[in-house]
Amino acid sequence: MSDTHAQSVAFVRDTAIPAAPPPARQRGAIRWMRENLFSTWVNALLTIAALVAIFFILRGILPWLFNGVWTTPSLTACREVLQGKVGGCFSVLTERWNQLLFGFEYPRDQYWRPATAFVLLFAAAAPVMFFNLPRRLLIITALYPFVAYYLIWGGTVLTPIVALLGFVAGYLAYAGLVRSSFATGFFAGIAAAALTWWIGGMIVSAIAPARPWLVHVPSRELGGFMLNMILGVTCLCLSIPLGVLLALGRQSRMPLIKGMSVVFIEFIRGVPLITLLFVANVVLAYFLPPGTSFDLILRVIIMITIFAAAYIAEVVRGGLAALPKGQYEAGDSLGLDYAQAMRLIILPQALKISIPGIVNIAVGLFKDTTLVSVISMFDLIGMIRGPILAASEWKGIYWELFGFAALLFFVVCYGISQYSQWLERQLSTGHR
Amino acid sequence: MKKSVILGALALAGVSAGAAAAGTLDDVKARGKLNCGVVTGLVGFGAPDANGEWQGFDVSMCRAVAAAVLGDPNAVQFVPTTGKTRFTALSSGEIDLLARNTTWTFSRDVDLKFEFIGVNYYDGQGFMVPKALNVSSAKDLDGATICVQTGTTTELNLADYFRKNNISYEPVPIETNAEGQQQYLAGACDAYTTDMSGLASTRATFEAPGEHVLLPEIISKEPLAPLVRHGDNEWADVVRWTLNALIAAEEAGITSANIGELSAQAGDAPEINRILGTEGDLGEMLGLDNEWAKRAIMAGGNYGEIFEKNIGEASPIGLARGLNAQWTDGGLLYAPPFR
Amino acid sequence: MTTMTDPEKGGFHVSQLLSDTRYRAYTFQAIALIALIVAFAYLGANLVSNLRAAGLDISFKFLGSEAGYGVEQALIPYTSQSSNWQAAKVGILNTLLVAVLGCAMATVFGVIAGVLRLSNNWIVSRIMAAYVEAFRNVPVLIWILIIYAAVTNAFPVARDYLGEDPERNMMFGVMAFTNRGVYVPMPVWNAGAAVVLAVFVLSLIAIALYRRHVTKTLFSSGRILPTFWPTLALLIVPTVLAYFIMGRPIGFDAPDTLSNRFNIQGGVQISASFIALWFALSIYTGAFIAENVRAGIQAVSSGQTEAAAALGLRPRRIMKLVVLPQALRVIIPPLISQYLNLTKNSSLAIAVGYSDITATLGGITLNKTGRAIECVLLIMLFYLAISLAISVVMNIYNNSVKLKER
């Protein structure tokens, strides 16, 4: 072939040119920068502005961070060490870490107890959070509340055991009678549990040892970040079942039940949490029988729980509404009654759809636990605004303390939201 | 954790059912602990120290009552209260006694139905300003920005004072004393107003206390008094006479140093004997035993000792006795006779 | 539920109340009703006996009595002799003020961050991601306190501006940034100002009418009329003309640094607590709105953009005519619930001493009068009313944009 053109064309290439590397402007870091940072002049301006902003922020923060003083007993001593240089007085964290984490009244020699409960929390949460772990591990989760209660509050070990026995008795009664009817099983379960607690309570108060293995710590003495964790975890665990019930109530065909659920949900969602906490703190006492006084922490738990439950109810309602009508009809056509259809067909699917929403509520709930500082409870923020800033040694120190608080919350909340995104990816398979 | 709540509720329901009928004194004895409402943090009057122990002038009152009633100055559950929550905490029974620099006023006594059991500190509201401002009188503060704690009588006195003198001011309401100091030191307000004792205690913790002055005007009467619920006179008597015992002990010269000696046997002074229970049976009349006052005084010393230790001139707060001296020294403290 | 129940034969048995699906619903509702009544009766009885024991009563008379305290920021006339009710109204207006301004600024933050987070500029999208994560994952109370401390400690003190020979000069001679707040000039309305204002409002209406006309022309004849310049002209020209014709009726009262030795007088003072609360709420809520905006834009499938491009529309028009209308349908419902959250979060004003409804009625008035039940009840009613009003707006919007299928 090449012969035919030999006269007309001066030169014909008969071998392929070896692939040349792309020009310098089109490769490696330069290309990446051209595409991602300087693709248009607007982008270039934005990039430069962003770099300048980052530079100024780092210039402010880095010396403060690296010149930080970690070992002085007071702010005055810290300022002497710094001698006018820029630097953080992080010694407030090293000196008061125990108050920030556990509050100022929790017995110092007992710090290992909440710390253990915190570590165990991961073991207990894992089976719930990761579905591919063996289902048998859920028993750890079920036992955790009792162990954690015992560790944090202490007192006689019989109290959590009786509480556990009550739940076991309730479950046995339910399992025995649920075949005949869900309602029968449900009420029998509640009755059995209540009976066990009543009898057990009497036994415990009769034979409780005067000196238990773990010293009893009253709720008043809980504080610091531990209090935020306790409120967050407890209220979340309690509000999910309540929220599901409210969502079912709102979807119910019984007008009265539906109306009550709607009014309750809308009322709670319409007012700020802080007013509910005021109710817990200053009004609730008037609605209880004369002479009753129950723990502020318990009242706060109730209020945060119903607050979160109303929001969870809306998320679950969304999940219920998202299910195709065919699923409800399938339940009916199989001859399942309401409780069975809900338990076996509807709720497992609806809850699965709702999980990301519930996790969002959980993050919000955890952040909202800081509001208890407004009603004179010493959570992390309460500790900072109260005893630590009022102490003469640490008067006038803000950034280190609030930065530390922000960091703690960020770590927990960011962790939860990353988990939520991971979960969403896991669950999305097969549904799109 | 969630089960603990249910259990707690059950247990509490049981407890409260039994406790509802009895009086406060019996409640406290049955409980073995005194629930005492205190301030959330005011150095010198009531604040947890670095070890988490509550310390202060008001706190000592709680400890004295606990010692008198229960025999143990540490049998106190301190309940921190804010300006907003203190009265509800008391009227709902959450606390048995409120010792939180609370001003005795007509409406609190009559309308809110509380029983003030006697003044433990005579105070008055004043102003603190930076020396650099060259202000010598509160009347010069026309147009100034003033930091004031919300939810106290301070706020009302301030409004009244400026109105009376026909000058204007801008209030900066603040929630806690710590925030007030932050605002004041940053110059966000020109003056800081609260009770003189609070100002002194605040100034004492500044880096350079000498750069701030307390103005001479005292614009209000602030008799600070512990209070209990209206209508339970036995309990009110116990608290009232515990306070009186502390005051009378100073007058009679009973101190924590010599109390062991004085109470060993009846001495020459009949009043001391009656206070310490070596003579007569005043304690039994109160529903306690005869050594009640001895224990109360031993808890933290007599009134003077408590004052000196927490807020007196030797302490960082550095308050002079002033109006709070014994009547024999020209002050207002005057305990009724023990007989 | 099931419709498989056999037709009823024979008489009615009591056991059917539980076992027969036709009656069971009534049984449950009756139980629920009784439980509800019993619960309310129990709480009510407790309330009555507690109040009687304490010698108190429920009464709203305290609202008429003198408040006795001063507030930092009042939009309506208020002195310490005003009534508690007037103080409550001051608080309500302050809550609404911070809520409305907060919503506006949060929307600005949120839209900017949401759009930039989708930008193909790597560094900008990362910064926006960092902003969103940092603010979403830290409690708003901490942000309020941090920003308040920043304003207090980083801004200059007011004294620097005062006197004949100040250490600092006001920006443009009329604005002062101090740690007590920002002082800006206050407009003074003289005679004739109403005319200028009326002209301005009329020109706004004219703009709306013109824009509608433009859309109509586009849809009916396909002609594209210019919008930007006519809008700008309509906005500015008539108002400026009216201003000069009426003889400059609107003046400005600049902050005065000479007449008082403590404070800047005159002008408008935007207090530090308001700035801290406003900024913290809007930057916090803005992070959430950014996520809504991002989700809304991503929810419009790329096929829509491609189809519009295939029809020959230019990028700006694709955004305006195709993407935005569809994205807004996704964005607006969560946006409104974020507005609601912001309004409710504004009750945290109490942490920085801003005089909102929670601080006046629920704070000082409650402390002073001890009327806890009445005050908390009124506050709850106020927030409920706001949230119901916003819900109504949201429902109206949802119905108006509902996809009309089939």
Automatic annotation (TrEMBL), chain A:
Keyword Transmembrane: yes
Subcellular location: Cell inner membrane; Cell membrane
Segments passing through the bilayer: 41-66, 111-130, 137-155, 161-178, 185-207, 227-249, 270-288, 300-323, 344-365, 371-390, 397-417
Record GO cellular component, one term: ATP-binding cassette (ABC) transporter complex
Residue ranges occupied by any ABC transmembrane type-1 domain in the UniProt entry: 225-420
Main localisation: membrane
Keywords recorded for this protein, A-Z: Cell membrane, Membrane, Transmembrane, Transmembrane helix, Transport
NCBIfam families: HEQRo_perm_3TM (TIGR01726)
Protein name: Amino acid ABC transporter permease
Record organism: Pelagivirga sediminicola
TrEMBL record, chain B:
InterPro entries reported in the protein's UniProt record: Bact_solute-bind_prot3, Solute-binding_3/MltF_N
Stretches of the chain forming a coiled coil according to its record: none
Top-rank lineage group of the source organism: Bacteria
Signal peptide from the UniProt entry: 1-21
Pfam family, one: SBP_bac_3
Classification via Gene3D superfamilies: Periplasmic binding protein-like II
Domain Solute-binding protein family 3/N-terminal per the UniProt entry, residue ranges: 33-262
GO biological process: amino acid transport
Key words of the record: Signal, Transport
Family named by the database record: Belongs to the bacterial solute-binding protein 3 family.
Protein name stated in the entry: Amino acid ABC transporter substrate-binding protein
Organism: Pelagivirga sediminicola
TrEMBL record, chain C:
Aminoacyl-tRNA synthetase found in the keyword field: no
Alphabetical keyword list: Amino-acid transport, Cell membrane, Membrane, Transmembrane, Transmembrane helix, Transport
TM region positions: 25-45, 92-116, 137-158, 188-210, 222-246, 266-290, 376-397
Gene3D superfamilies reported for this sequence: MetI-like
Membrane topology: Multi-pass membrane protein
PANTHER family noted in UniProt: AMINO-ACID ABC TRANSPORTER PERMEASE PROTEIN YHDX-RELATED, MEMBRANE COMPONENT OF AMINO ACID ABC TRANSPORTER
UniProt protein name: Amino acid ABC transporter permease
Naturally occurring in which organism (per UniProt): Pelagivirga sediminicola
